[in-house]
Every structure is written in structure tokens, then in C-alpha cells.
Amino acid sequence: MTAPAQHHAPAPHSYVSPIPVRRAHLGDALASEWTKIRSVRSTLWTLGVMVLLMVAIGLGVAAIAANAGEQGMGDESALGFGFFGMLPASICVITLGVLTIASEYGTGMIRTTLTACPSRARVLTAKAIVFFLLVFTVTTVVAALVGAVQVALVDAADTPTTGEWLRATVGAGGYLAMLGLLSLALGTLIRHSAGAITVMIGVLLLPLVAAMFMFSEALKSVQEWLFTYAIPSQMIALYAARPPFGDDGPSGWEPLLIMTGVAGVALAGAFSLLNSRDV
Amino acid sequence: MIEAVGLTKRYGAKTAVYNLSFQVRPGVVTGFLGPNGSGKSTTMRMILGLDRPSAGHVTIGGHPFRQLPNAPRQVGALLDAKAVHGGRSARSHLLSLAQLAGIPAQRVDEVLGVVGLQDVAKRRSKGFSLGMGQRLGIAAALLGDPQVLLFDEPVNGLDPEGILWVRNLMKKLAAEGRTVFVSSHLMSEMALTADHLIVIGRGQLLADMSVTDFISANSADFARVRTPHTEPGQREKLTAALMEAGGQVMSEPDGALRVTGLPLPRISDLAHDADVRVWELSPHQASLEEAYMRLTQGAVDYRSTDDRLAHLQPPQQPGHPGYGMPPQPVVQDVPQQGWYAPPPPGQNPYAGAPGQQPVPGPYAPPAAQQPAAPQPSDTTKDAR
């Protein structure tokens, strides 16, 4: 320290930042994605509309059923009415899932993000986790509240079992969140908001609509398969103890497993393509 | 230190960048010039690991970007000022990037102050002007206090005060020992900011040299000669004499002559010998802008044509009036665009090897225009 003037070494990388350097990890990416998802209004709008639809439709259907009186419920519980709110809610979830990643492509933000974190897998993992937890929490809580009111309103229906309660809350929330992850994966693959949302709404509704018009005898097996495995049918099956369509169709927890598998495959494709593709 | 070796990028049949090799050294501002579509942004994206090169490689401090440990703490970049989610506030945008890179949150408020956006930090960036957007992009680049900085067109949309600020900021960052790589279309701006230039055209390296060398190597000097317009015969006479002596003569729209290949005293002597009075004999020296335009004139992809309003005119009368016209005059007109004086003899701008000693043009002063000396910046107060 006697001759500080001698310290002139203009070697490469001579600038050293005084801010302590530490390695970023997945936790940092999670915090970042949480900041991103809560700082745009589209999140509030899509989730707000979703909650509104689930509550309004769920309670409306329950009120009509309660007025109709004793007949017609059989051994079903009132929780099955949750399906009617779940279908429109899924459109909101699809929109949010696609926007979570496709809006970054639309604005060019993805380049800034991937410059701040070259590990693309970490970015997509963080997005998927934050999005899944957000949608799962909101839908599960709302489904539980709506379910409780439905059970209280409709006296004619059976008292739901614990299994039915779990499927109508955690199961429904998980199913919608997985559907959202499928949308997120598709948004990563297509990189365009409107395109990915259109494709997802087609996947959601078209199989069922197409099956309705398959009058030909030759298409009977295709029609049956579509009726059994279309996404709305799977949502109905989630509330049912026995397969509601066909004898070997999904029921109970099986729709959630199917959707988890589909979302997993789509996410794997999204990971590999995101990692290899130019942005 | 950024080092590119044989960098090539193809999109299908189109080659955006071909066999590009250069080094960007720390401690100086390196300008990156080229016409639109010449591959500047593609090169920057490859440096940042966003695009994968078709061949060759580029490293920062010896590592490819995606393998850098703590990449955001070593490299900061402004690629596109509009690459921001418009619905997010400036502060949230920077906070999300800081969190992603493991940078303390108080650094966000610091850089907001550095770029002067502290008063609009809570506003959604959708309402930002282009200049404010550039400032936000610069803030994002400075977030990690990195030693390597890339800026793609940082002064686009900035007002004069903002341009001065960016210029001083670049110089200050380089003076701190950082590597600063700036692309721009504004040659006058580069002359004042950059110490070193890398010029590309159609994806290939055209020049890699210091600004002073670049200007003298590519200077497009010529002499302007004006004869009395009251006596048109004198102009023809002088033109003939100059061409006989080996000069190239072109006619300017206002009647003056543009002479290359002859030094000023020789032009004066020739005029004297031919008994022609001269009203103007002036040297014309190239700016960086002209030197650049001349270097890249063969590599411009997008060139405008005259708007002739062709199909709005009445049809041509039969009996082409062009026939029987006298032959074209010997003296060509100076084209509206795309013509610059040829290089000094024996010099091919496309063969400009790095570090080559340039031969000054016939009218070049002993020392070509020096870029302004770096001034200590007191407008920015980045605590780091």
C-alpha cells in the first residue's frame, strides 16, 4: 500500500463491481416470476373474471336446483354442480397460462429475461411453478367456498363423502392448474398469444362439438371416444364416482392423472424447444 | 473482452452474418456500425447467446454467454427499448430482472436514479416516450453493474440532452475499465463517443480500426472548383485541361466542378495555364459520416429509388424524342445519392486489414479530426 500509483494494470476485466456477487438460483427466478405475474393487470382481470364466473354460475345453478325441490338428484351430491362453473373458468385459466409466457414473446421481454438468466430451463420452471401454485390456490379455495354453499342450498342431494369433497376442491383446482400448464407449454411452443389461446380453446371445445354431429354409424367408435375423453367430459368425470360416459372411461381422480400426463408431455416439448431455439 | 471467431449465421438461404471475427477490448468505447440489415443486431443476439451461430463462436471473457458463471453480473445489454411489458411499471420491470439475477432490490432504485426515471418509477411503461424507454433499457443494462456492456442503438429517440448524457455515460463506463460495445446509425455521434470502430456490411467485416484511422483510410476528399458562370466556355476549357492532366471531374448541380485525383496547387496551375479565372477553389474533407457511407455504399440492402409517378403521367407520344439527340456531355452530373469520391490510389476499403497504416488522402490534414477528448461526467451520479 506504499505506492498505490503503481497499481495500473489495465488487464481485461479490470472493473470489479462493489456489489457482492452471488450465484442466482431457482428461488431467485421464482421471486422474479412472482413479481412479473402480480405486476400486470391481465393477471387480476383473468383471475377476477374466473372467480366471478365460478361463484355466479355455481350459486345460480344451486339456487335453481334448490327451488326445483326433491326430485331428480338421485344419489348425486350437490358438489357436481361445480362443473358448470369450472368450464368457463377453464377459459380464463387458458388465457392466463398462455399470456404468462407468450406476452414476453409479444413484447420482446423474453430477450431481456434470457439475458438476465441464460438458463432457459430455470426461467420456464419458475414460470410453471408460480403459475401452477397461483391458479391451484385460487381455484381450490373458490371451489371449496362455492361447494360449501351448494351443499347447504340443495337439501335434496346426498351428503358428499370426504373423497367427493377432495375431488371437488383439490381435484378441480389441480385439473384447472394442469390445463393452465398445458396452455403455458403451448404458449412457449407457439410464442403468440392469440394463436395459442385459439388453439387451446379449440382443444377444449371442438372434440365435443365434433362428436355431437357424428351421426354416421361408421364413426360411432370415434364419437364415443371423443365423448369420453373430451376435456369437458373429463371435468364431469372428476365429480363422478363411476365412469359417466362408457364403461371404461375415466372417473374419480383419473381425469387429473390424464391431464397431468398431457401437460407433462407438452412441457417437456416446451423445455427442449425453448432450449434449442433462437429467441 | 468480447471475442468473435468466424461467426456465421444463416436463416435458410439468407446469410445474415458471415465469417465475422473481431475483438472488443475493455477500457474503450467500441462503435459497431453498418447499414440497416447488415447483421448488427443478429451479431449482438449471438454474443448474448440468444441466437445460436451457424458456424464459429463468440465468447465473453473466454466463455460462451450461456456458460458464463453469474452472466447477468458480468454482461448487461440494451437490445430493444420496446422490449418491455407495457403494463408493468418501470420499477416492477427492473425489480423482476434484479430478482432473477440475484441482485439486491435497492440496486433498482439506484439505477432508476442513474437514468433519471425515479419520478416515473411507478408509472406503467406503456405511456413512456421512446426516450424514456431507452433510459429504462439502459437502467436494465446497468442493473448488474457488469464489466461488459452492449447497447443496440442507445440514443434512438433521445433528445439532445439525453444524447449528451448517453455519450458521457459510455465514456465513463469505458474509463472505469469496462468493455463497452455500442451500435449506432448516427455517425456524428460515434465520432464523438467511440474510440474504436467495427464496421460491417451485408454481414461481413468491412473495417476494424480506430476512429482516426478509419476517417483517414476512407476519407472521400475532393476539390470544388467554380468558374465564372457568366462565361460557360471557361468551364468547358478547364474541364478539358483537368481531365487531360489525369483528374476526374464531375459536375455539381449548381455548376461547380468536383475534382478528384489532383492536388489543389496543381488545379490552380492548370487553370492559370488554361487562362481560366477561378471563383472558388476549395478543399472538401470527409466527415466520419461520409467515410462510412463510402465504405458501405456497396453493402447497402435498402436503397430508395426516385418516385417518378410513372403511371400517373399521360402516355408518351410516338416518335421517341430521344433519337437524334447529340451525344451525352462528357462531364457527368454528381448523382443525387450513392456516389462518393473514389479512394486514394492503391487503397481498397474492402481490403482494410485491422491495424493497417492508412495513406492520407491528397487533401487530408496532417492529423485527421480527433474525436473530442473524454470529459469527466458530472451529470450522472452512479454511486458504484
Question: What labels describe this entry?
Answer:
heterodimer; A: 279 residues; 10 helices; 0% strand; disordered N terminus; B: 384 residues; alpha/beta; six-stranded mixed β-sheet; five-stranded mixed β-sheet; 11 helices; 14 strands; 21% strand; elongated; disordered C terminus
Describe this structure in words.
- Chain B: It comes from Streptomyces flavochromogenes.
- Chain B: InterPro entries: AAA+_ATPase, ABC_transporter-like_ATP-bd, P-loop_NTPase.
- Chain B: Keywords: ATP-binding, Nucleotide-binding, Transport.
- Chain B: Belongs to the ABC transporter superfamily.
- The complex is a heterodimer of chains A (279) and B (384).
- Chain A is 72% helix and 0% strand.
- Chain A contains 10 helices and no strands.
- In chain A, helix 3 packs parallel to helix 6 and helix 3 runs antiparallel to helix 7.
- The termini of chain A are far apart.
- The N terminus of chain A is likely disordered.
- Chain B is of the alpha/beta class and 384 residues long.
- Chain B contains 11 helices and 14 strands.
- In chain B, the strands form 3 sheets. Chain B has a 6-stranded mixed β-sheet with strand order 5-6-7-3-8-9, with helices on both faces.
- The longest helix of chain B has 16 residues.
- Chain B is elongated and about 80 Å long.
Question: How would you briefly describe this protein structure?
Answer:
Chain A is mainly α. Chain A is built from 10 helices and no strands.
Largest sheet of chain A: none
- Termini distance of chain B? 21 Å
Structural class label of chain A: mainly alpha
Mean pLDDT of chain B: 81
Distance between the termini of chain A: 49 Å
Spatial extent as radius of gyration of chain A: 24 Å
Helical stretch tally of chain A: 10
Helical amount of chain A: over 70%
Counting DSSP E segments of at least 2 residues, the number of strands of chain A comes to 0
Compute the CA-based radius of gyration of chain B. Answer: 26 Å
Give the chain pair forming the largest contact, with residue counts: A-B, 43 and 54 residues
Keywords (chain B): ATP-binding, Nucleotide-binding, Transport
InterPro entries (chain B): AAA+_ATPase, ABC_transporter-like_ATP-bd, P-loop_NTPase
Pfam families (chain B): ABC_tran
GO molecular function, one term (chain B): ATP binding
